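Final report, Chapter 2: Outcomes

The project's central promise was a pipeline that accepts a single protein chain and returns its three-dimensional structure in a standardized token representation, suitable for archiving and comparison. That pipeline is now operational. To close this chapter, we reproduce one record exactly as it appears in the project archive, with the input sequence first and the structure output second.
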Amino acid sequence: MYLFSEIASIMEGEVRHESDALISRLVFDTRLLVEPEGTLFFALKSDHKDGHSYIVNAYDKGVRHFVVNRSFIIPRELEDACFISVDDTLHALQILGKSHRQKFSIPVLAITGSNGKTIVKEWLSQALSFKEKITRSPRSYNSQIGVPLSLWQLNEHSTLGIFEAGISRPGEMESLSELIRPTMGLITNIGMAHQEYFVSVEQKIDEKLKLFETCDTIFLSSDNVALYNRCRELYKGKRLLSWGRLTGADLQLTDSEAAAEGILKLRWQNKDLEIAIPFKDAISVENMLSVILFMLHTGCSEEQIKAQVMKIQPVAMRMEQKEGIEGSLIIND
């Protein structure tokens, strides 16, 4: 928790109405309000919505502390509320997230990729829960807004941070890298998502790999030869650990047919492993390889891995389809 005045100082904002309140929660959406006491509302502005339009709504729900743009005129009915005025509310949120991250010297894993970021993050969190106190991105909080909100969750009990970083355009990853300052990085894959904003797949690879500038170790698939070779070229001084089906992968899947039955036959450091997993589809197998590789790197034994991966539960994702009553179909949106 931070004092309201301390947060103003970190963001170099102007306090309009003093407060000695302790702030423990950051919110930018009134629909996410749970407990207004100790909440700081950021009035974020996008191309489609202006958070300043929801300040009165947040106030009516009990919030009394706000971060606003300097041009915002405080309505008379909100004169008992407390405000921090800044040049840019999103930038102020990022400054606060970055400052909070810098207080922690624990290992931090950053995950990027076109698909699978949330699943790998959640599976790692489940698999490593027996030995780590993990702070991770809520849901798919991987954007310019979501990352600082995720970093805010770090606390004195955290022993490992796992955070997603998602981009849709060139020039976005550098700021996320500066916020997260990861010690380890993992890239799930490179696909065609958001390709319309990039002139080539190579440009997208370079943009995503910017996330790993502060990393000591990077986890990736060696089956994606273009990605692997580019990462090796850019980061000659870093340790690359790979998973894949091709000879030369640090963690090699040696039997694809067995994998389709939920049995991973693997080769790791000249030793054969056989690990049963609760999934059989190809995408889940790929994601599980990255999870197992990370677990091996962190010192988990074969027995621990076997026990933990069988406990992993599916991750409910957006657009997940479920059967409803009377033959209806429910879509998680």
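Archive annotation: The chain has two domains: 2-95, 104-309.
This record, like all others produced under the grant, will remain available to the consortium after the project formally closes.
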